[in-house]
UniProtKB/TrEMBL annotation:
Residues 371-622 form the Histidine kinase domain. It comes from Caldithrix abyssi. This is histidine kinase. InterPro entries: GAF, GAF-like_dom_sf, HATPase_C_sf, HATPase_dom, His_kinase_dom, HisK_dim/P_dom, HisK_dim/P_sf, PAC. SMART domains: HATPase_c, PAC, PAS. It catalyses: ATP + protein L-histidine = ADP + protein N-phospho-L-histidine. Residues 178-232 form the PAC domain. Pfam families: GAF, HATPase_c, PAS, PAS_9. GO terms for biological process: regulation of DNA-templated transcription. NCBIfam families: sensory_box. It comes from the Bacteria. Residues 107-153, 239-281 form the PAS domain.
C-alpha cells in the first residue's frame, strides 16, 4: 500500500477538543448538551460548523500521542455509542502501527544501506555453508560478482595456504553455536592471494536452530605484510646484536686508558693506538662530558656501579650514536685499581624500537577492528530478529488493515464488528500490541548503537597531524572507551567521572587517543587476571582541572604492579606478561605521547592485588 500523499499540511489544534484529547491521551465521546458544556468549560474555539455528536481517539505510539482520529455528526447527537468508541480505538491502534511501521521501514532502509556500504566484507550463508548474501565490499575484495557468489560455497576462496585444522576448528565452533575468530589466507578470483581477519557466528532462531551463518571479514593483507616485515626485521637485528661484542674500556687508577677493544674502535671511530695511555678526557670522544665525569667521580667515591642509559655521542666521522654505559670500579678489597667502562651501541636498537612502536600501533588497529566488528554484529543480530518478528506481525494483521481500507460505510463496520473481534483474538492481537512496540524500541536502540560506534571510530582514527589543535579530552576519552569496549566489557564495569567544566588542551588527537587506549586496554588485562568467572572488576576514568593543568586518572581493580616494577613500566620492551602476550610497547608509546609530544606528565600508583591508577597531566590551552 502506498500513500496518495507523502506529506500533508499541518492543522493547528490549539484551543480545540482535539488538543484536549491528545494531551489526556484518552478517547472522548461528547453528545448534545454534554458537548456544549465541555466547550464552555475548556474554552474551546469553534472551527467550522458546530457538531451535535463528537468522537475522537488519540493516535499513540510508545505512550506518546502524535495525532487524533475524529468523527462528527452535525445533526444527530446520539449517533455514536461506546461500541463506536471501541471500534475507533481499534482503528486508531492500527493506523498508529501502520505509521510507525513506515517510519521503521525508512530506518531499515538506512540500516540496509549501512550494511551494503560497510567497509568490512559481509557474507551470509545457509546452514550448509552455501552463500545467500554478500555485500559490495566482498565483491570488491574477491573479484567475484554478487551473481557469481550466490549459491557458491566460501571454499571458492580457498588457496590451500590455510591449514585444514583451521577449517575443522571453525566448523566445530560455529556448529556448536559459538563464535569463531581467526584468519584466512585466501585466493581472489584472479588467483591473487590475500589475508582476511574473520568473525563468523551462527544465526539462531527462536527454537535454537541454526538458520544461517554470518561472516564479517576484514582484508588485512597490508597489515599482515607489515607484521611479517617487522618480524623479519626484528630477527635480523637480533642476529646482528648477538654478533656484536660489547664496548670495553679499561682505565687504571690514574684514569688513563689501558684497553680499548674493537667494539670501542667501531663505535667511537677512534683506533686503540690513538688513545692508549691517555685519559678519557683526552680521547677526543664527543659526548656529554659533565654526565661522564660526574658518573666516574660517583663510582670512585661510592664504589658503586653507575649506569648511563641512552647517552648520545658523535663519532670521529660525524655520525651520531646512542650507547648504554656501565661504569664499575675494580681492584682489591684494600685498594682502588681503576675503572671498567662497559657499553652497548644501541643506535640500531633504538631505530628498531621506533619501528616496533609503529608496528604495535598497527596491531592495536587490527585488534580494534575485530572488537568493533563484534560490537556492531550484536545489535545487527537482534535488529534482524526484530525485523523478522515485525514481518510476521504485519502478515497477521494485514487482513484487518485491508478490510478497514476497503470499507467506507460505518454501518458495514458495525455489522462485522464481532467477526473482526474474533479475528483479533485468533491472531492474539493483544500480545502483538504489547510486543511490537518493544521490538521497535530494541531495533531503534540497535541502530543508535551502531551509529555511535561508527562515529567514535571515525573520530578515534584521527589522521596524523602536523600541527597541534584544540582537543576535547572528555570527548576523546568517551570515543576511546566506546571503541575499546570489546576489550573490557567481559571483565570490568566502566565508570566515568568526567568534569563538565574541563578546559581544552592543544595537542595531537591521534597520539592522545593511542595513549588513552593503551592504558585502558592494560587496565582491562590487569582486571582479567584477578576476576573469577561470572564476576567483574571495575575501571574508572576521571577528569578534572588542577591549576593550569588537566588531570586524567585511569584506575582499575586489577592485579596491581609490583613495587620493583613501578620504575620500569615505561621502559621500552618491559612487560610482565607471558611471552607472546605483550610487546612492552604500550606504556612506552603512552609515555612518549604525553611527555615528549605534549609536555605533560604521566605516572602511576599501584598496590598489589588491589589495583592501579595512572595519572596524566596535560597543559591547558589558552
Amino acid at each position: 500500500m502506498q500513500d496518495e500523499k507523502e506529506k500533508m499540511s499541518s492543522v493547528s489544534l490549539e484551543g480545540t477538543i482535539s488538543e484536549v484529547v491528545i494531551k489526556q491521551k484518552r478517547p472522548l465521546l461528547l453528545r448534545g448538551k454534554e458537548l456544549e458544556e465541555f466547550k464552555r468549560k475548556h474554552k474551546i474555539k469553534q472551527k467550522g460548523a458546530p457538531a451535535k455528536c463528537w468522537l475522537g481517539v488519540p493516535l499513540i505510539v510508545d505512550n506518546s500521542a502524535f495525532g487524533i482520529l475524529v468523527v462528527q455528526d452535525y445533526s444527530n447527537p446520539e449517533t455514536y455509542t461506546q461500541e463506536d468508541v471501541q471500534l475507533l480505538e481499534f482503528i486508531a491502534v492500527q493506523i498508529a502501527a501502520s505509521i510507525q511501521r513506515k517510519q521503521m521501514e525508512k530506518r531499515l532502509i538506512q540500516l540496509s544501506r549501512a550494511v551494503e556500504q560497510n567497509p568490512a566484507s559481509i557474507v551470509i550463508t545457509d546452514p550448509d555453508g552455501n552463500i545467500e548474501y554478500v555485500n559490495d565490499k566482498f565483491t570488491e575484495i574477491t573479484g567475484y560478482s554478487y551473481e557469481e557468489a550466490i549459491g557458491q560455497n566460501p571454499r571458492i576462496l580457498k588457496s590451500g595456504e590455510t591449514p585444514a585444522q583451521v577449517y575443522q576448528i571453525l566448523w566445530q565452533t560455529i556448529t556448536s553455536g559459538k563464535v569463531w575468530k581467526g584468519r584466512f589466507h585466501n585466493k581472489k578470483k584472479n588467483g591473487e592471494l590475500f589475508w582476511e581477519e574473520a568473525i563468523i557466528r551462527p544465526v539462531i532462531d527462536d527454537h535454537g536452530k541454526i538458520i544461517n551463518y554470518l561472516a564479517i571479514k576484514e582484508d588485512i593483507t597490508k597489515i599482515k605484510e607489515t607484521e611479517d616485515a617487522f618480524q623479519n626485521l626484528f630477527k635480523q637485528n637480533q642476529q646482528l646484536l648477538e654478533a656484536i661484542t660489547s664496548i670495553l674500556i679499561v682505565m687504571d687508577h690514574e684514569e688513563k686508558i689501558i684497553r680499548w677493544n674493537r667494539a670501542a674502535e667501531e663505535t667511537f671511530g677512534i683506533q686503540a693506538q690513538d688513545v692508549i695511555g691517555k685519559t678519557l678526557l683526552q680521547s677526543g670522544i664527543k659526548w656529554d662530558w659533565s654526565e661522564i665525569t660526574q658518573a666516574v667521580q660517583k663510582c670512585r667515591d661510592e664504589r658503586i656501579r653507575v649506569d648511563i642509559p641512552d647517552l648520545q655521542l658523535t663519532d670521529a666521522t660525524g655520525n651520531e650514536h646512542f650507547v648504554n654505559l656501565h661504569i664499575v670500579n675494580y681492584g682489591h678489597e684494600d685498594g682502588f685499581s681503576g675503572f671498567l667502562i662497559l657499553g652497548e651501541d644501541i643506535t640500531k636498537w633504538k631505530t628498531m624500537q621506533s619501528q616496533l612502536i609503529q608496528a604495535q600501533k598497527l596491531e592495536s588497529v587490527g585488534q580494534l577492528a575485530s572488537g568493533i566488528a563484534h560490537e556492531i554484529n550484536t545489535p545487527i543480530q537482534y535488529i534482524g530478529d526484530n525485523v523478522r518478528f515485525l514481518q510476521e506481525t504485519f502478515k497477521d494483521t494485514e487482513p484487518l488493515l485491508s478490510f478497514f481500507n476497503e470499507q467506507q460505510n460505518p454501518d458495514k463496520l458495525s455489522a462485522r464488528y464481532q467477526e473482526l473481534m474474533d479475528y483479533a483474538r485468533e491472531i492474539d492481537l493483544s500480545f502483538l500490541l504489547e510486543d511490537v512496540p518493544s521490538a521497535f524500541e530494541q531495533t531503534t536502540e540497535g541502530i543508535t548503537r551502531v551509529a555511535e560506534i561508527v562515529r567514535a571510530m571515525k573520530e578515534f582514527t584521527h589522521p596524523q597531524q602536523k600541527e597541534k589543535e584544540i582537543v576535547d579530552i572528555n570527548k576523546a576519552l568517551r570515543n576511546t572507551i566506546l571503541i575499546s569496549r570489546n576489550e573490557w566489557k567481559y571483565v570490568a564495569d566502566m565508570e566515568t567521572r568526567l568534569s563538565d567544566s574541563l578546559p581544552t588542551t592543544l595537542g595531537y588527537l591521534g597520539e592522545l587517543n593511542q595513549a588513552f587506549l593503551n592504558i585502558i586496554v592494560n587496565a582491562a588485562h590487569a582486571v582479567k587476571e584477578v576476576v573469577k568467572k561470572g564476576e567483574k572488576g571495575k575501571i574508572t576514568v576521571t577528569t578534572y582541572s588542577k591549576g593550569d593543568s588537566i588531570r586524567i586518572e585511569i584506575s582499575d581493580t586489577g592485579c596491581g604492579i609490583k613495587k620493583e616494577h613501578l620504575n620500569k613500566i615505561f621502559d621500552p620492551f618491559f612487560t610482565t606478561k607471558e611471552v607472546g602476550k605483550g610487546t612492552g610497547q604500550g606504556l612506552t608509546i603512552a609515555y612518549n605521547a604525553i611527555t615528549q609530544k605534549h609536555g605533560g606528565k604521566i605516572w602511576c600508583e599501584s598496590e598489589r592485588n588491589k589495583g592501579t591508577t595512572f595519572f596524566i597531566e596535560l597543559p591547558v590551552s589558552f
